[in-house]
Amino acid sequence: MSDLLERLRTRGWRVTAQRRVVAEVLDGDHVHLTADEVHAQAVLRLPEISRATVYNTLGELVALGEVVEVSTDGRAKRYDPNAHRPHQHLVCSGCGIIRDVHPAGDALAGLTGLPADERFGFTVDEVRIVYRGLCPSCR
Amino acid sequence: MSDLLERLRTRGWRVTAQRRVVAEVLDGDHVHLTADEVHAQAVLRLPEISRATVYNTLGELVALGEVVEVSTDGRAKRYDPNAHRPHQHLVCSGCGIIRDVHPAGDALAGLTGLPADERFGFTVDEVRIVYRGLCPSCR
DNA sequence: TTCGCTGCAAACTGTTTGCATATTC
DNA sequence: GAATATGCAAACAGTTTGCAGCGAA
Question: Do A121 and B132 touch (CB under 8 A)?
Answer without folding.
Answer: no
